[in-house]
Amino acid sequence: MAYHMLIYVVAFLPATILLYQLVPQKFRYIVLLCANCIFFCSFSKGLIIYLIAAILVAYFFARWIEKIGEKKSDGQKAVTKAKRKVLALGIVLNLLVLVVLKYTNFFAKSFIDLTNVFGSKWKFAPIRFLVPIGISFYTLEIISYLTDVYRGTIKAEHNFAKVALYLSFFPQTMEGPIARFSETADDLYAGRGITFNNLKFGYQRIAWGLFKKMVVADRFYYMVSYIFSNYQKLDGSIMLVGAMAYTAQLYMEFSGGMDIIIGSGQIFGINLPENFRQPFASKNASEFWRRWHITLGTFFKDYIFYPVSLAKPVKNFAKKVKNVFGRNVSKFVAPTVALFCVWICNGLWHGAQWTFIFYGMYYFVIIFIETITEAPVKKLTDKLHINRESNVYKAFQSVKLFFIVIIGEMFFRAESLKAGFIMFGKIFTDFHISYFWNHRFKLHLDAYDLIVALVGVLVVVIVGFIRERKPGLRERIDRKILPVRWIVWYACILTVIFFGAYGSGYSVVELIYAGY
């Protein structure tokens, strides 16, 4: 069972809603916890043991940190040091499970490949691990929970069931968003009754998410799979089309999934954090990542970027650089070291492949260049009397960012780093528009499906443009007269029913981010 499946939308979710509403308010969080177990077991079965173990670590280590903090007689320094040790142990235990399950084969193969360069003849035999879906997401939530208890920004929860609910809330299980305890705890445990408005807005958002996932993303899947599997015999123009198609597929699926997830939470009065905010309206890569996978970015900012940039060794290194090269260079040291750590972690978090590590380093280099060239570019545009607020300049920035993003996604999706470079190279050495035109309907996407997908993209772009210019689109639609509201939402629902990529001729497309 997954969020975009019929069984979830018309059976599991309504049954949970009904039972939730029938139970007394103080027990409603138990209903959600039971729903979490059923949902998780529907696709991971016995692997729920990993989730239970992670919840136990989060619960007991948070209580342990809190208990140490209550020992006033030991002195502040001693207490802080003891708390830090417990925090480190709790984080290491959780990361150890993640690293063993997801990265053992990657590190072992990389080591063997390296030794083979020097003449060894070792062969790699991968170990088959069963990795629970969502482990990368709930591991980060545990780290944020323990760290926030350590910092004193939240209190440790003494009710084990409530900690379990926070870390396993079923809409978030597969793809996030990565919520902080302080953001969702009150809503999760309040047990508020389901209101008509929450039910209406929740299902409206689910319908919009299904439109993006089933009408657009799932259609591009077939083209993308064909192009990235047959890149060696295809033209550079097809490589570019494949990169654009994958970017569209990824955005439509992931943001559509977030719409379904956040809509599901909204039905129960639980406000989950937003994960996308018109990312392609950004001016540069830095802004793009403040709008794309927002909760992952804020996690890395709060729990890696700031701690690393403020770490004593980094500060000392910055001082040495200042003594040699001066302040203008040294001011970039701490942010650059922290940025490097963020993007290494970002790449590795997505998966145990060199393509993901390269993806992280790609954005590290891009954002680093943007940072150090910001002042010179401003001076240059001022000198040339270029208005940076003009529509032409903004269009230039958008086009530049678009190509930065699709090239990054090309490597992200590539079968290997070598394949990514071959595809990238073909764009410059073997590019023929005529080849694309002659093969445009031979890429496992016929004329009908291509038109439906492109119209779907256009609809999402228009809606995004309206939301960027004036937020609150759903609320404005809700204030319209009844026939207008019905036309808008029934059009969305009927489009999913009649134009969704399911049934005869289509296969079930797995969620991309559920594999991370």
UniProtKB/TrEMBL annotation:
It is found in: Cell membrane. One of its GO terms (molecular function) is acyltransferase activity. It is a multi-pass membrane protein. GO terms for biological process: alginic acid biosynthetic process. The chain crosses the membrane at residues 5-23, 29-62, 86-104, 124-146, 332-350, 356-377, 398-414, 447-466, 487-509. Its main location: membrane. Keywords: Acyltransferase, Cell membrane, Membrane, Transferase, Transmembrane, Transmembrane helix. InterPro entries: Ac/AlaTfrase_AlgI/DltB (IPR024194), AlgI (IPR028362), MB_O-acyltransferase (IPR051085), MBOAT_fam (IPR004299). It holds the Pfam family MBOAT. GO terms for cellular component: plasma membrane. Belongs to the membrane-bound acyltransferase family. This is Putative alginate biosynthesis protein AlgI. It comes from Eshraghiella crossota CAG:259.
